[in-house]
C-alpha cells in the first residue's frame, strides 16, 4: 500500500497533461530529425584535397570547389574578368608576421607602384619555384624596376602558411615582398590549376631535379612540425601584370616548372630583350665565393710570410718579422 501512495505522489493528476506533451520530442520522427541536423563527417573531416593546416578564419579552405585537373588541361592565359577580380580583391593575404591585407592593396592602392607584377608560386618547399626566384633575383633588382619609365614592383605569393616566409626568403635570396595565401581561393578564382606534371626543363632551371628534390626534403626536415604547412603540393601558380589597377597580362603555369621565362619577364617589363645573365649554378654560390676569398687571403699571407723569411735569411737578420692583417704589407727590420 505504501508503494501505491508513492506513485500517486510522484505523478499528480495535474501533471499528467504536461508529461504527455514532454513525451513528443522523444517520438521516433523527431529523433530522426535531430540526427539529420548533425554535421556531415565528409564536410568536416580532412581528406587528401584539404591542406593539412588551419587557415585564416576570414577565408575558409576550399571544399572541393576546384576541379582537380591533371597535366595541362583547361589552362589558358586569358585575362581575368571584372567579375573574377571582384571575387578576389577583398581576399586576405598574410605577411611573415601573420598580418593580413586585402589582395587589391597590392596593385590598386595609394603608395604602390603603378605597375605590379604578382608571381604566384607553388608550396614553400618547391625547389622549382625556388630556382625560379633565384634566377629572377639575379637578373632583376628592385632598383632597376623603380628606374623604369613606369615604376614597377614585383610581389610573390605562396599557398603555404606565413610562418614559412622567412625560411623561403633565406633559401631563395628573394629581394621582393613575399606573402602567403593558404586557402588557395586566389589561385582558384584567377584560373590557376593543380597538377604533378613536371613538364620540360625551362631555361631558368640551373640545377637538376635530384638536387632540387633533396633540398626540398632537407628544408622540410629542418622546419620540424612546419613540414606539412608548406602548402598544397599539386597547386601551381602563374604571373599576373597589373597596370594602374587593371590586369593587362597573364601567364598561368601548366606544369610544376611552367613559370614564364625570366627573359620574357624582362622584355615584358621593358628592361631589355636580351638573355638574362647567368648566375651561379649552385644555389649557395655566394657562400662558396666568400670561402674562396678567405682561402686566397690565407694563401697570400702564407706567401708573404715565406717571402719575408727568405729575405731575412739572405740578409742574415735575426729580428723576427711582424705580420699585419694586410697580406701585402710586411714589417721587419734588419741589422747590419
TrEMBL record:
InterPro entries: PXL2A/B/C. It holds the Pfam family AhpC-TSA_2. Residues 1-60, 276-336 are annotated as: Disordered. Residues 9-25 have a biased composition (Low complexity). This is Thioredoxin domain-containing protein. It comes from Epicoccum nigrum (Soil fungus).
Amino acid at each position: 500500500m505504501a508503494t501505491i501512495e508513492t506513485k500517486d505522489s510522484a505523478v499528480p493528476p495535474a501533471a499528467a497533461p504536461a508529461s504527455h506533451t514532454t513525451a513528443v520530442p522523444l517520438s521516433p520522427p523527431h529523433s530522426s530529425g535531430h540526427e539529420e541536423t548533425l554535421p556531415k563527417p565528409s564536410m568536416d573531416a580532412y581528406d587528401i584535397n584539404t591542406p593539412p593546416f588551419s587557415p585564416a578564419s576570414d577565408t575558409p579552405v576550399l571544399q572541393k570547389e576546384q576541379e582537380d585537373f591533371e597535366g595541362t588541361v583547361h589552362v589558358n592565359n586569358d585575362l581575368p574578368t571584372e567579375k573574377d577580380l571582384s571575387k578576389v580583391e577583398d581576399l586576405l593575404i598574410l605577411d611573415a608576421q601573420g598580418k593580413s591585407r586585402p589582395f587589391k592593396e597590392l596593385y590598386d592602392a595609394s603608395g604602390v607602384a603603378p605597375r605590379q607584377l604578382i608571381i604566384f608560386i607553388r608550396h614553400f618547399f618547391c625547389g622549382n619555384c625556388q630556382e625560379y626566384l633565384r634566377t629572377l633575383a639575379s637578373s632583376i633588382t628592385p632598383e632597376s624596376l623603380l628606374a623604369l619609365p613606369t615604376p614597377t614592383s614585383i610581389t610573390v605569393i605562396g599557398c603555404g602558411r606565413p610562418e614559412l616566409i622567412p625560411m623561403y626568403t633565406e633559401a631563395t635570396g628573394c629581394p621582393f615582398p613575399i606573402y602567403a595565401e593558404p586557402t588557395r581561393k586566389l589561385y582558384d578564382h584567377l584560373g590557376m590549376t593543380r597538377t604533378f606534371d613536371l613538364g620540360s626543363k625551362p631555361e631558368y632551371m640551373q640545377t637538376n631535379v635530384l638536387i632540387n628534390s633533396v633540398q626540398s626534403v632537407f628544408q622540410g626536415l629542418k622546419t620540424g612540425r612546419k613540414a606539412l604547412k608548406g602548402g598544397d603540393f599539386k597547386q601551381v601558380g602563374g604571373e599576373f601584370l597589373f597596370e594602374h589597377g587593371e590586369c593587362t597580362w597573364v601567364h598561368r603555369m601548366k606544369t610544376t616548372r611552367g613559370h614564364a621565362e625570366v627573359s620574357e619577364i624582362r622584355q615584358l617589363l621593358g628592361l631589355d630583350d636580351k638573355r638574362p645573365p647567368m648566375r651561379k649554378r649552385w644555389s649557395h654560390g655566394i657562400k662558396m665565393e666568400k670561402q674562396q676569398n678567405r682561402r686566397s687571403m690565407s694563401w697570400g699571407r702564407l706567401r708573404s710570410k715565406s717571402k719575408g723569411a727568405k729575405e731575412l735569411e739572405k740578409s742574415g737578420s735575426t729580428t723576427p718579422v711582424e705580420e699585419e692583417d694586410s697580406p701585402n704589407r710586411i714589417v721587419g727590420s734588419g741589422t747590419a
